[in-house]
Amino acid sequence: MSRPLDLRHVISPGLRDLIELANTHDFDRVQQQVRDLRGCTSPVNLHGWTVTTDTATKEVVRSYHSEDEPSGRLLTTCGNRRASRCSACSRVYAADTYHLIKAGLSGGKNVAETVRDHPRAFVTLTAPSFGPVHNRPTTNSGQPHPCACGDTHAEDAPELGTPLNPATYDYTGAVLWNAHAGQLWARFTTYMRRALACHLGMTQKALNTALRVSFAKVAEYQKRGLVHFHAVIRFDGPDGHTTPPPPWATFDALSAAVGLAVERARLTVESDAIGERVIAWGRRFKVDPITALGDGELTDARVAEYTDAKVAGYVAKYATKNAEGAGTVDRTLMCRPCAGRGYLRGPDGFHDVCADCDGTGQAEPIKALPVQRHVRQMIRTAWALGHLPELAHLKLWKWAHMLGFRGHFSTKSRAYSTTLGALRDVRRAWRLAQAEAAHARAGLPATDETTLVTASSWTYLASGYRPGEELIAAQVRHDIAHAQRIKSEGDPWL
């Protein structure tokens, strides 16, 4: 019987744990499990089992128990779409989003390739002004000229997007706009169909019988802390992407409908504390045609040509971003034990001050956040509005770190293209096929997948790595980054 290792002389907890893992019965499996995560930042730790049985022969075809792992648990990717939280999983999400958008523009993934001949537009909708802000205006040739403050700001100037006069800036209006941006988009899609029917001089019923409008959109934060939407809008025939739209459904008709819908879509918010507010789109919006082929470059500042691939890449890039582009934090400020209320209901039914937040309801004080004054004021405004009784349903204290925005970052209509779930199913089927191929190479008999039944039971344990596993994961991330750098720049030693 071997004696336990004496690692008291090893100062580093990570190195000490790595040595312990290296002395387990199967260190290769420890490394393989971490490598399979492809650099995931915070993997999910699971305990449980799965057993696959052939119902025809009653034999167990495959079985897995997490207890058989050297660490006694299974690690699986966190699946977080946010690049600020997990760059590895966000890359997978971005790739899926790219293929989803691209399929709706070029076909593939069970979408007819004829969709590239349908009228398609790349639409940008923005928020209205809530007060003048520092900006970097440019001429038609792209040359910057002075801001309203008199200075010509650099591209990375920290004051960009902040109010010229914070005392008069409408922070309440800005936060409420963010909070209702998702609802305003839903109303826009309804009004666009109405506006299209009006523009074409036909009834909505007749329009819906002859035409289907499909779309996919993504939200992006501007420097001033307000979201705006980029959307792909496509005209289809009555049966969706498999049928062409009628001849009168042109890009010009789509552009006109967008303009009318931007003007007419409205929401009204009523409150005794802040009065009546009208939520509407800003005056600046763009509607550009998408071409099937082209070599133009797509950038934030200037567009040479909108092509299928470049629009898909543009949307995918923003699908993995959160509010960090506006300079805010990527975590909720709500105290979880008291759900942001600042109190807990005791056994006697009375409200007791929450010990975790000292009654503030904040997981960390807003005044201590490492953010700019403008962002801090938007967070404070969202927190205060969320505690008004008439606005409690918005739960703005929960979304204060998002500056009030509480909608989905990316959405699509049902008939636009494939789904993220379908893309994940394809990956899962591919992995299963690889496993079956390895099964066959080992000389084992093939199984009939139609007669297999899988039973499983899993329990969540925690998130993250052991200290030693984190060292292995860091090496995996380094290797992936190095391989990507060589792929993009070439090997300097060749």
UniProtKB/TrEMBL annotation:
InterPro entries: RepSA. Pfam families: RepSA (PF20199). This is Replication initiation protein. Residues 138-161 are annotated as: Disordered.
